[in-house]
Amino acid sequence: MPRSPAGIVIFGDVVDSRDEPTASVGFLRTLCRELEGLYDADKLASFGFTQGDELQGLLAPSADPFRAILHAGLHPDYRPIRWAIAAGRIEDGSGPATERTGEAFLAARQALEWARARRDRLVVRTGDPHADGLLDDLAPLLVEHLDGLTGVQREATRLLAEDGLRQAQVADRLGVTRATVSVVAKRARARSIIRLARAIDTIFAAGVGEAVGAGRGGGRP
Questions:
Q1: What is the pLDDT of residues 124-170, one digit of tens each?
Q2: CA distance 6 to 205
Q3: In 15-153, which ranges are E strands?
């Protein structure tokens, strides 16, 4: 029997969405549209969200799922989200991510429930116990860093982390001095955010590789 294809599943549940349902839906609609462009050929299904204000995405095994978390966390319309990411097998099919299924979707659902129980905002599952143990400690820190940003810090960090601009270029874009950007970036811990996201993705990719080698499924080779 042929093996099911592999993929990376992303679930994102807007925290306390019932308090401001219109704003939550508007943010999710915008976020799904922007993530479509961000991942382009790296997605296996269109992003979508459920009536329960839960974003769902399905990415190719080679994709970096943490770009989605950075993008959402640095968005000007930012709203807190609880995230779950899982690599594994998916069932053949078509349609948006909200209509797909497979082992990776089940793992992501369990990870999201685990995140709620632990009151963490990001839980990641690669299929490799060692990597997943490391990610249980590290991954939530990324969202905690993003949560604490002010509007100005979020905008400056977005230009540094997502657009890859230098501080002088950010200063030109924002119409402020480079010294101001330096202070804002330091207070935002922008460098730490960038390095942490990179480290988490490295551990994730290594864990998926170990899981594949051990025959436990997983996404990236």
A1: 999 999 999 999 999 999 999 999 899 999 999 999 999 999 999 99
A2: 13
A3: 43-49, 54-59, 81-89, 122-125
Helix-then-strand count for the chain, H and E: 8, 5
Q: How far apart are CA 47 and CA 154, in angstroms?
A: 24
Residues 6+ positions from 58 with CB-CB distance below 8 Å:
7, 8, 9, 10, 43, 44, 45, 90, 97, 100
- Please check whether residue 32 lies inside any domain of the structure: yes
Q: Does residue 159 form part of some domain? A: no
Look at residue 111 and tell me if it is in a domain: yes
Q: Is residue 108 part of a domain?
A: yes
Round to whole Å and give the CA distance between 152 and 203.
Answer: 30
Structurally, how many domains does the chain consist of?
1
For the domain that residue 17 is a member of, what is the CATH number? 3.30.70.270
H/E element, 11: strand 6-14
Query: What pLDDT, in 10s, does the model give residues 37-95?
Result: 999 999 999 999 998 889 999 999 999 999 999 999 999 999 999 999 999 999 998 89
Q: What is the rounded distance in angstroms from the CA atom of residue 90 to the CA atom of residue 102?
A: 4
Q: What is the pTM of this model?
A: 0.90
For residue 39, the enclosing domain spans 6-137+203-213
Specify the residue for token string 């499924």: 217
